[in-house]
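As promised in the previous annual report, we have extended the structural survey to additional targets. Below is the entry for Alpha-galactosidase.
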Amino acid sequence: QTGNYAQAAHANGKLGNMTAVEYRTEFSMWAILASPMIVTTPLLDCATGTCVPRLTDLQREILLNAEVLAINQDATPAGRLLWPAEAGAQGLHAYGRNLSDGS
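The corresponding structure token record, generated without further manual editing, is:
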């Protein structure tokens, strides 16, 4: 349950081997909830003595998304659960956050 921890990362239901949509959604949720954006993936591979970028295209797309990072860094309070509803075995939830520009 989100809200019981200092960061949304503790709310993960699945680790690794997610789809591109799941990775984008997870990072976007961290932004909405104003979670600390601490990335621990190696950015460079220096094993051969020459450092080369190690990020995949998907990682680069997600981590460098200026729009998502701007939401995370906005001065307004963290987002919150707006609408919970149960739908069979899966719970549906809507999260949101008012930003300082009124959006």
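The longest strand covers residues 80-87. Residues 8-96 form one domain. These points will be discussed at the next consortium meeting with the crystallography subgroup.
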